[in-house]
Amino acid sequence: MQWIIDISYFVVAALFILGLKAMSSPVTARKGINWAGVGMVLATLVTFLTPGMRNYGLMLLAIILGGGVAWVLGKRVKMTDMPQMVAVYNGMGGGAAAAIAALEFARGEVTGAVVTTLAVLGALIGSVAFSGSIVAFLKLQGLMKKAWKVPGQNLFNGLLALITVLLGALIIASGPSTLILLLFFLLALVLGVVLVAPIGGADMPVVISLLNAFTGLAVGFEGYVLYNPALIIAGIVVGASGILLTQLMAKAMNRAITGVIFTPITGEAQASVSGPQGTMKEVGAMDAAAMMRFAQKVIIVPGYGMAVAGAQHKVWEMAKLLEEQGVDVRFAIHPVAGRMPGHMNVLLAEAGVPYDKIFDLDEINSEFPLADVALIIGANDVVNPVARHDRSSPIYGMPILDADKAAQVIVNKRGKGAGYSGIENELFFQDNTSMLYGSAQQAIADVITNIKSLG
Question: How far is CA 360 from the centre of its chain?
Answer without folding.
Answer: 17
